[in-house]
Amino acid sequence: MSPALFLTLEGIEGAGKSTVAQLAGSWLTRHGVAVRLTREPGGTPLAEHVRRIALERGTETVSPVTETLLMFAARALHVENLIRPALARGEWVVCDRFTDATRAYQGGGRGVDAGLIDALARSVHGGLEPDCTLLLDLPVEAGLARARARRGAPGAPDRFEAESVAFFERVRAAYRALAAREPQRIRVIDAAAPLAEVERRVTEILAELRAPGEQR
User: Fold this and answer.
1) Three-class SS of residue 6?
2) What is the mean pLDDT of residues 70-80?
3) Domains (range + CATH), the chain
């Protein structure tokens, strides 16, 4: 039996991370792997409170640095109270977003200093990094169209959903740069492909990770 692994899902709005999370959870369960699905920001009751603060479009200004600190506050709660305990129990953790999202959204999108993000990452989850990250990549216009269709008419978009195309182009570029720097960990999946093709690629990667003696 392979050890418990930490898998993360990344991508812009509308990339299909929630769908892939459910697919991964179902596949792993069918193959006898104990798995915990979670998300960021959030994942625990208190971290979900921080999520609401970070995403809500209120009357007060939230600077890029403040936004970054909120993300890491939620992440610290999540790591301490859910992710590390689940891995210690032998459960695989599949997380919708992690620190790569902060590097892409706050770093690439907002221009927050990469050194600050890396320092916070070391402080909050030093020694814990994803074993594998699936980057669901697709053109920004396609992703935003999907996100709008998913959201529908009711409810206002959150602070990120309301951002400009240019913002999401910067986020996507940052994600792709991360993948180029860490090709062993970050597997890029064409999220614009038909769903069946996306599912095939995801299950191939899961089977590879589950294989005994897999060298990562």
Assistant:
1) strand
2) 98
3) 6-210 (3.40.50.300)
